[in-house]
Amino acid sequence: MYTSPHALLLLTSFFVTSLGAPTHNSLLNRADVTATQIQKFAPGSATCAAGGQFADECRTADQVVPLLNDAFNEFGIATVGERAAIASLMSFETGDFKFDRNHFPPPGKPGQGTRNLMTFPFIMKYAQNTTATAAKADALSPNPATADDATKNAVLALMLPDDLSFASASWFYTNQCDQSIVQGLQSATESGWENYITECVGTTVTDDRKTAYLAALSAMS
Ligand SMILES: *[C@@H]1O[C@H](CO)[C@@H](O)[C@H](O)[C@H]1NC(C)=O
Questions:
Q1: Which residues form the signal peptide (predicted)?
Q2: Ligand 1 mean position to 110 CA, how many Å?
Q3: Ligand 1 lined by 135 (C-beta under 6 Å)
Q4: Is position 73 within any domain?
């Protein structure tokens, strides 16, 4: 039997590829985010206390890993600056991944949730822009502007399965932030991150938010 050196080489490279080398966007994609990195900017995600508050909504860093990486890959979010900004926003908004609905002040704001705690108008846009939920969202709320609280919560419930809930921040960034914001985050500058928070997310820069972003940036770099 004869095996050419060339065939052996092909076989070797086939195995290297199939054993986990990046095959998609390999020039842009960083390595996947790890649980150790997540715990550096979201230390509360090490565990979920059994019987704790919102225990059914809590996810540990180990559980967050595949969900976050799937979302980054789905939306092509490949740079450290973008990933650090999006992941730290998610952990900041949800008390280190402890909940996925607005609870404060009780009983919380109807229709607001997912892992970046989006408000209802954006939850509705996200539902309508997602193949699996678009028809259901339209049927529930033909006119989002006049939806009552129960309807808002019903639309939110469509987006709370983990795969959709953990992708909402990446969806929002991809669809609601303009190109100058994208360039700012890709450059991983503090001013780029501040513009993302104030001009796209639409909230204010605080020391706590900045600390979380810088910790994520350092952990992922
Ligand atoms: C979501 O919105 C984007 C940008 O407008 C569009 O290209 C895409 O087709 C939409 N997807 C769905 C499922 O509506």
A1: 1-20
A2: 25
A3: no
A4: yes
pLDDT category, 51, cuts 50, 70, 90? confident
Closest ligand 1 atom number to CA of residue 175: 4
Determine if ligand 1 sits within 6 Å of the CB of residue 180.
no
192 occurs within a structural domain? yes
Q: Number of structural domains, the chain? A: 1
Query: Over the stretch 102-142, which tens digit does the pLDDT of each residue have?
Result: 999 999 999 999 999 999 999 999 999 999 999 999 999 98
What type of residue is 114? Answer: T
For residue 193, the enclosing domain spans 35-220
The pTM for the full model equals 0.87
Query: What is the C-alpha separation between 182 and 86, in angstroms, rounded?
Result: 11
Query: What is the mean predicted confidence (pLDDT) over 45-63?
Result: 95
Ligand 1 pocket check for 132: Cβ under 6 Å:
no
- Ligand 1 and 146: CB distance under 6 A: no
